[in-house]
Amino acid sequence: MVFTSLNFLLFFPAVIVLFYITPIKYRWLTLLIASYFFYLNIEPVFGLLTALITLSTYYFTRQIDNTKSEDKKRKFMYINVIIVLLPLFFFKYFTAINDGVFNFLEAYDIRWVLPKITFLLPVGISFYTFMAIGYTIDVYNEEIEAEKNIGIVALFISFFPLILSGPIERANNMIPQFKSELRLNPKNFAIGLKLMLWGYFMKLVVADRIAIYIDTVYANLAQHNGDTIIFTSLIYPIQVYADLGGYSLIAIGVSKILGLDVMPNFNRPFFATSMAEFWRRWHMSLITWLTDYVYTPLSFSFRKYKVQGIVIALMITFIISGIWHGATINFVIWGVLQGIFLSIEAILNKRRTKIESTYKLKSNFAYVTFFIILTYVLFSISQVFGRAVTFEDSVLVFEKAIFERGPLFLDKTTLAYSLIGVIMLLLSDFRDEYFSGKLLLFDNKYFPIRLLSYLFVSLLILWIGILNGGQFIYFKF
Amino acid sequence: MERQDLINKLTTIFQTTFEDNSIVLTDELTANDVDNWDSLTHMILISTIEKEFDIKFKLKDLNKMKNVGALIAIISSKIN
Prior knowledge:
The complex is a heterodimer.
Chain A: H1 6-21, H2 27-40, H3 46-66, H4 70-107, H5 125-140, H6 150-158, H7 160-163, H8 171-179, H9 186-219, H10 226-257, H11 275-281, H12 284-301, H13 306-325, H14 329-358, H15 365-387, H16 391-403, H17 412-434, H18 447-464
Chain B: H1 3-17, H2 39-53, H3 59-64, H4 68-79
Helix pairs in contact in B: 1-2
């Protein structure tokens, strides 16, 4: 069941009603049942995975808490992390490894009849796997006590707004909330509905519309000229932002209506003036997760090598992030590029801050604009490896971008409609970035203005939104 | 080591690491309050503290360093 499906528009109100008529003490149970219903509805067998991960995580986190021996605690932590990772590895990399062996043998003219099986990746598996790992390590680090009620652990791992694509939440934020007195209140309702409305706008009006153009170009790279490909690659980050950012807002809004606060996933990423800042604003729940559970342990063990140690830790973290996105050479390059950008920045950082403060550059319009554009372009270049399906395709993109000039491919209707959405989205972000709390529409103090803005955005969704649309980009991760 | 001596020594480390002589340490100070104190410089800060105080942190200690007050508490537990 996808947020943009009709089923969800029936499911969610039903959940709210059930939630409301359940006694407060058992509302977490209603959410748990609703979450399993939601997930099993996609593919019943996937429920076995969440159940397995829940059972193992519950058992081992309790064991960690119950033993005094530091060695045993560490052993239990590692065992659970491995158990929880196994299904992810299997589903994500089995096909890649299988194909790899197949091609390798074929290259040496050995025709081995290997079973060429392709498994469907259980949607959301990465997200709840990461949440379970985070919880296990938090218990080990004594950041949080192991939860004694297995139902609450099950809810944490399967909570329906987050299960398909995050935000990748933390146990110390969610578990206490699940155990608190969950109530519906009009204020949360209003906040949640506004977030959902803007999320649907981002997804249906911006992401899915602009996707039509981008998909057309990327599906026929050979037929398009370099200028068109440059333009397409430059707008692709907007699609990803509107897609995952829109999804996240809907997830956060749905949770808010149920009285639960979920962490933000994006913070106006396109106004970042460096890659480091960009990664503090883009897919924040993933990046903070990687920082806490991958980068920090790595850089801690390399700390005696000072800056070199940090560079190595950064590279490994982003290569892991790349391989998580997909077991392809393209995603490895994607990760290496992020690592290189961030390492260069880390090395130059002190000098840059010094120059910035000496010449008061942080308030210099031209300087800030230049770095905003540079950051955006660097990210767009790296995203070519995220969008192009094969390595050959990415090479073609750069070849054409450099050598082939020509008129821009104009799909006028798609571009015009996209433009309306993109301008609205960027203006809204621009306002929040530089004029925080001013020129409010959804939160205007006058009711008629608020009402008109809701109506306008809703009508826009119905008028130019792609309502028969497809999946969310991050479902495949 | 007296707490004040520890703070003085730590202040010098902070000022050198973040190249800012105006940094004044308080218990409530966090990474958000200091320019350049991010996940990259943090590890340099940590290894410098280890060297200067001749102590070794554990990864678990790192998670408990929520602010300068917590950092001071962890350092004093190691040197005393």
